[in-house]
TrEMBL record:
Protein name from the UniProt record: DUF2723 domain-containing protein
UniProt keyword terms in alphabetical order: Membrane, Transmembrane, Transmembrane helix
Organism of origin: Sphingobacterium gobiense
InterPro entries per the UniProt record, alphabetical: GT117_domain-containing (IPR052724), TMEM260-like (IPR021280)
Pfam families, A to Z: TMEM260-like (PF11028)
Signal peptide boundaries: none
Length: 1004
């Protein structure tokens, strides 16, 4: 057995080293999109990330940051390597898990396996572990600094440990493995909660091991106990322990007059004392189950103490201090994710339901000397509620109706509810992801229900035509897209063989793996209860389910061996099945997935952050809106120290009381943001929502007077709502603000040649029917600033969130500057543009890294370029320069625009956006370059229109009228442009294409 153990350990470590090496080679060198910028910035300085936090992850990533040896440009890379190492270790424990399961089937506890048995077991472990290592979802998380790689490691360790306990359960000290599992679970809370979903499977392992006679009744009871333990940790330990500590503190402070925190200390001592007494009691009376349970609870709590970092660092009030959880009630709200709201699970409203009753609740906030009562989250009763609600979001009513075929006034039924759950939540938001990993993936586009974006495919035309259609005329741009990964169903089939073989050989542990598969897959779907049209794909949430299925891929090797051994020798069947499965799973997966998972050349997230910051003048205030125009900027400032004088203000966060308070903090080199009011006016529970009440005021109201009215505590300036509660309100929507022209000129707010256009008063209409902290604070900042600091908005920020100030916004590319000017030639509804700044940024200041040289560009980067860079910077600048007759500079911008085009063609949007750039190239003599772009884009559009026809033949409901019109508009524009050139041959080709497709689709 020693030789087996050595081989098992060595082979497992080789798998881990191989996958870790692959991950390090392909990992991001900087930050990437979404949450990674926030995580890297927060880990580097141990700051507070968004709810519910990940303190242990941040601490460990901080350790990895030290390997950069002071080179701040390498910090992100080393944190990404941290995820790569965690992912490699996950593969190690998956390998050992698979070999442990095969060992239970092949050999007894003390038997010595034969050489060929060892080879079979090692092959199963290698193929199953490497297959998972190179799956789409797992590889994606392995190369960026996000919590999911470390969370997967926790899951892998826990499941391996329960198998370790199962083998040693008869030994006197076997329960140490259960206690270690509890500790890992406690630690995992500080990473992500997904690991807790292994508990029901663990409960089943314990039941099967401790009972010789297995019954359905006993199995159900053990599962129920597992679910109860899961609930105890999820709600009891994580939430209600803090809730009880808060209740104790309120009593000690408000009733006994003691200091803040006294009740928390008492509760903590009471909890510790109770557990110690219980452990002593269990030893004294020889109650082993109680003893193990209390010790496990102790270690869960001990692991959970990683959250002390959140409370400690929140008291230091760092630059990134999300939710500012520096007191017990703020900490409780942080853990409960109160900022994000909650989805109904057991019973709830339908999307068309009307509120019939509002039940207010109360909570507390920390005051100066006592805890003060404030309004909590109100409870609503609706006129249409149902069990297991899936159609609950009013914001998505139109999508629900379209998806389910409901008429305008038709109310959804419970059948519609289940239909949406099965088809969309289980089908689109889980099964699609599952097949991505084991059957194939169409592309990396976001899927919104269409047939050409983000579906699963197999690479087998007959099957793919049945599900997505259009495979007979698949354009080269789709067929050769690196994110089109086809596995021909092979990993899936191997896994199914493994599943069947496992149930035939060992029903008990096959049931345990199946339970793990369910709880980390379908059960998450039920719990998350996701609404449609998510901002990004959510496959990372189900990585644990794909982990469980990969166990069966490993066992599928043995299933194939069993089948072949009926006709061939042991040697031939072992070698053949091993080679076939190795090629059909890990080798196929790595060969298909490498090109679109290699992030080593990507830098656009960092480049965009750099471009945003360098677009701002010194000491600017930059308003951002979402993750991708905020988190990379945080990374660049907090880690690399670039443009730390720019104060970033996120409008989404500005709706929160804690964020308004933090405006008065100095952040790095950025001065505090001035407000004309005490932030206590917008404290928690105060002015959360201020409705518009029409008072018939037709004249413009001065902004300072309006803010004074909104911030007034005088009941005459408020409106009475339910139960006599007084509420501040907005009495008028027409706003004006006097402009200090001297301050505008002094601080160089406007270009020198625009000084004559500075207005005496800014006048605008407020666009919304309510005011939140965000709008009130924004207006106060603008008023109080008095043009001392430049104020910008990212081009990512919707204009409807600018409180009507978009009338005075001047486009400078990817930022838009607030200027009190009215240009004489401005058309109604047209945004003003500073052409000089646009030209300077487009040709000199902006960095795009290797964007134009990459073999593959990810969808988030493409979306940023196609929606915000090509149109807002390059197309607009060439158009404006041509209007001014400045053809030389227009040419420079157009040439630069072509230089940053990706090597591959991806988008109809890109084809249409570049029409003006092509026109500029022709008019400035860059004929070859213009022809190159025309051929590229016209070919792409023609291919798409052929594909659309083929797709419509297979799927009549798939004809996308919007895309057809988009395509025809692009062809028409190129046709018009070429008509005025000497490129007659190319013009004839484009004209014929335009005429052909117009007649084909318009006639239809």
């Amino acid at each position: 057995m020693k030789s087996y153990d050595k081989i098992n350990n060595l082979t497992g470590w080789l798998c881990a080293i191989l996958t870790t090496t692959v991950y390090i080679i392909t990992t991001d060198r900087f930050t990437s999109w979404w949450d990674t910028g926030e995580f890297i910035a927060s880990a580097y300085k141990l700051q507070i990330v968004h709810q519910p936090g990940a303190p242990l992850f941040l601490i460990i990533q901080n350790i990895f940051s030290n390997f950069a040896l002071g080179d701040v440009s390498k910090v992100a890379y080393w944190m990404n390597i941290g995820s790569a190492v965690c992912s490699g270790l996950t593969i190690l424990f998956l390998f050992w898990t698979i070999t442990a399961l095969t060992r239970k089937i092949f050999i007894g506890r003390r038997e010595t396996p034969s050489t060929w048995t060892i080879i079979q077991m090692m092959l199963a472990g290698v193929i199953g572990a490497l297959a998972y290592g190179f799956t789409d979802t797992f590889w994606y998380s392995a190369v960026e600094s996000e919590v999911y790689a470390m969370s997967s490691l926790c899951t892998a360790v826990v499941f391996w440990l329960i198998l370790k306990w199962e083998r040693r359960s008869a030994e006197p000290d076997a329960n140490r493995w259960l206690i270690l599992i509890a500790y890992i679970m406690g630690l995992s809370i500080g990473v992500h909660l997904l690991n807790l979903l292994t508990i029901p499977a663990i409960a089943l392992v314990v039941y099967f091991k401790k009972n010789k006679h297995i019954t359905w009744n006993g199995t159900v009871k053990s599962l129920a106990i597992g679910v109860m333990v899961l609930a105890l940790i999820l709600w009891g330990v994580i939430q209600y322990s803090i809730r009880m500590a808060a209740a104790f503190d309120v009593f000690f402070v408000n009733q006994l007059g003691l200091g803040f925190g006294s009740g928390i200390v008492f509760f903590f001592l009471l909890l510790v004392g109770g557990i110690i007494w219980g452990i002593r009691y269990s030893v004294k009376l020889n109650k082993p189950i109680l003893n193990v349970s209390l010790l496990s609870l102790s270690f869960i709590c001990f692991g959970y103490l990683s959250y002390a970092m959140i409370a400690i660092r929140a008291h230091a009030d760092p630059a990134l201090n999300n939710n500012s959880p520096d007191n017990i009630y703020a900490f409780l709200g942080y853990l409960n994710r109160e900022q994000y709201g909650k989805e109904p699970l057991l019973k709830g409203q339908t999307f068309d339901a009307q509120v019939t009753e509002v039940t207010p609740t109360e909570t507390y906030k920390r005051g100066t000397k006592k805890y003060e009562k404030i309004d909590g989250v109100s409870q609503y009763t609706y006129d249409n509620e149902m069990l297991f609600p899936r159609l609950y979001s009013e914001k998505h009513a139109d999508y629900y109706r379209s998806y389910l075929g409901l008429a305008t006034n038709e109310r959804p039924t419970f059948s519609d509810n289940l239909n949406f759950f099965i088809r969309y939540q289980l089908g689109n938001m889980y099964t699609r992801y599952f097949f991505w990993n084991f059957a194939g993936r169409q592309n990396d586009e976001q899927n919104y229900g269409g047939y050409s974006e983000g579906n699963w495919i197999s690479g087998l035309k007959s099957i793919d035509n049945r599900f997505v259609g259009g495979q007979t005329d698949l354009p080269e741009s789709m067929y050769a897209n690196p994110s089109r990964n086809v596995y021909y169903l092979l990993p899936l089939l191997i896994g199914v063989v493994g599943l069947i073989w496992h149930f035939r050989k060992d029903k008990r542990f096959a049931s345990i793996v199946a339970l793990l598969f369910f709880f980390t897959g379908a059960a998450i779907v039920i719990y998350l209860n996701q609404t449609p049209v998510q901002p990004r794909e959510r496959d990372y949430a189900y990585a644990g389910s794909f982990y469980a299925f990969s166990i069966w891929i490993g066992l599928g090797v043995l299933g194939l061996m069993d089948f072949l051994s009926r006709k061939f020798s042991l040697k031939i069947s072992t070698i053949t099945s091993g080679l076939v499965c190795l090629l059909a799973a890990p080798v196929l997966l790595i060969s298909e997935n490498w090109d679109d998972h290699d992030r080593s050349g990507r830098s656009l997230a960092r480049d965009m952050a750099y471009n945003y910051l360098t677009s701002c003048e010194p000491n600017a205030i930059l308003f951002t809106y979402a993750d991708n125009d905020t988190f990379p900027l945080w990374y660049l400032q907090e880690v690399e120290g670039i443009r730390t004088d720019v104060r970033i203000v996120n409008l989404s966060y500005l709706q929160s009381h804690w964020y308004v308070r933090q405006l008065s903090n100095q952040v790095n080199d950025a001065a505090p943001v001035k407000l004309n009011f005490d932030t206590a006016k917008l404290a928690e529970g105060v002015r959360d929502y201020m409705p518009f009440v029409d008072r018939g005021i037709e004249n413009y109201v001065h902004l300072d007077s309006l803010l004074a009215f909104l911030l007034s505590d005088n009941p005459t300036n408020q409106v009475s709502v339910q139960k006599g509660r007084m509420l501040s309100y907005l009495p008028a929507k027409k706003i004006e603000m006097a402009v200090d022209k001297q301050a505008v000129i002094k601080h160089h707010v406007v270009p020198s040649n625009w000084s004559d256009y500075v207005v005496d008063k800014m006048k605008w209409d407020y666009p919304q029917n309510h005011v939140s902290r965000a709008e009130l604070s924004l207006l106060s900042i603008v008023l109080t600033n008095n043009w001392e600091r430049p104020i910008y908005f990212t081009n990512y920020t919707p204009t409807n969130l600018m409180a009507g100030l978009d009338k005075y916004i001047v486009d400078e590319g990817i930022v838009r500057k607030l200027m009190p000017v009215e240009l004489p030639d401005r058309q109604e509804g047209q945004m003003m543009a500073n052409v000089e700044k646009l030209y300077e940024h487009a040709t000199q200041n902006f960095r795009w890294g290797k964007y134009g040289l990459l073999n593959f560009v990810d969808t988030d980067s493409r979306r940023m370029m196609e929606n915000f860079i090509y149109p807002d910077v390059y197309a607009q600048t060439t158009q404006l320069l041509k209007q001014q007759g400045d053809m030389e500079r227009a040419k420079a911008v157009a040439v630069k625009a072509v230089d940053i085009l990706p090597k591959r063609k991806y988008s109809l949007n890109e084809a249409l956006t570049y029409t003006d750039i092509v026109d500029t190239l022709y008019k400035t003599g860059e004929i070859d370059l213009a022809n190159q772009v025309v051929k590229r884009n016209v070919g792409f559009v023609s291919d798409y229109l052929d594909y659309a026809e083929s797709l419509a033949r297979d799927k009549p409901d798939a004809l996308d009228v919007r895309k057809i019109r988009f395509s025809l508009a692009a062809l028409e524009m190129y046709n018009i442009i070429l008509e005025d050139t000497n490129e007659r041959e190319l013009y004839t080709q484009v004209n014929e294409a335009f005429t052909y497709y117009r007649e084909k689709y318009i006639s239809k």
